[in-house]
Structures are given as C-alpha cells and as structure tokens.
Protein: YolD-like protein
Amino acid sequence: MSLEHSDRYDDIINLPHHQSRKHPHMTMHNRAAQFMPFAALKGFEATIDETARRTKVRVTLGPDEQLELNEKLIAVLGQLASQPWVTITHFEPDGRKDGGDYLVTEGIIHHFDQTAKVLIMDDDSRIALTNIVDIQY
Structure:
C-alpha cells in the first residue's frame, strides 16, 4: 500500500461507531451465531446416533430354566406378606427398535397383578412376568 492511499479514510477513521435508534444492539453471542455452520440436515446426527445405539437380543429360556424360574416365582409370591427383598433380572424391550436391555431391579414386591401378570414393586415400577429371566430372594 502506498502512502498516497493511506490517508484516504482519515476523515472517518475516528468517528464513533453508529448505534441504531430503532434496533437494539446485537450481543456478541448473536453476532457470532450468524457465522455458525448451517445444519442442512436437521436431526440427521440424532438419527445416526439412534441407529448406532446397540440393543440386546431377548434370550429364550429353556424348559428347565423356565421350570426353575416358575418355582422361584411361586416361592416368592407365597411370601409376599413377609415382604421379602428380591433381586429380579428382567428384559426391558426398547421402544424404538428391535431388542432391548437386561435390567436388574432390587426391592420389595408390593403387589402381584394376576390379571396383567405383572409384579408391582414398592417404587411402583412394574415388571411383566414374561420379561423375568431370574429372581433371587
């Protein structure tokens, strides 16, 4: 840049920054947001994350395992009045995709709903008998 061009803006260089009387001053955060990358595929990343999320396959118990589990359930249900502390391993189906996860729930069985075939725990959680794979008491 030559010296003859350096004095081109001398008349305006020291003027105060213009502030609009009609529009409020934009915050630095909002100014920066104007230059953020545009997400053309809104929700795409969430869809990718959901697809990548792994679920477990439901295991089917064999006849001997089912018999053993039934005996444990009958024993525990016979002791509901004494409120035994139980540890129940059960399958929780995923609401969005095939499969689910195995959870371990500990607590006291508050009630057994024979119609719905559901154990109601002391924290009001419900466990379907068809989802139980093991019970310890």
Q: What stands out?
A: The chain is about 25% helix and 25% strand. The longest strand covers residues 100-113. The radius of gyration is 33 Å.
